[in-house]
Amino acid sequence: xxxxxxxxASAILGIGFLxxxxxxxxxxxxxxxxxxxxxxxxxxFWALKPLLLFNIHDFLDAEKxxx
Length: 67
Prior knowledge:
By secondary structure, the chain is mainly alpha-helical.
């Protein structure tokens, strides 16, 4: 899933959680968890490009990894 879709899905889940559970801090945790759970993709990035420094544009370009 592309990063923007993760943000949208996390926002929808966070809003849904806010509507049903009510505490704003809990909805924020759901939203942030949905985004930060993708940090494991940094390992994939460096496995494919081990000699390159981190580049946010390459990291967010999901089409490079669909091959």
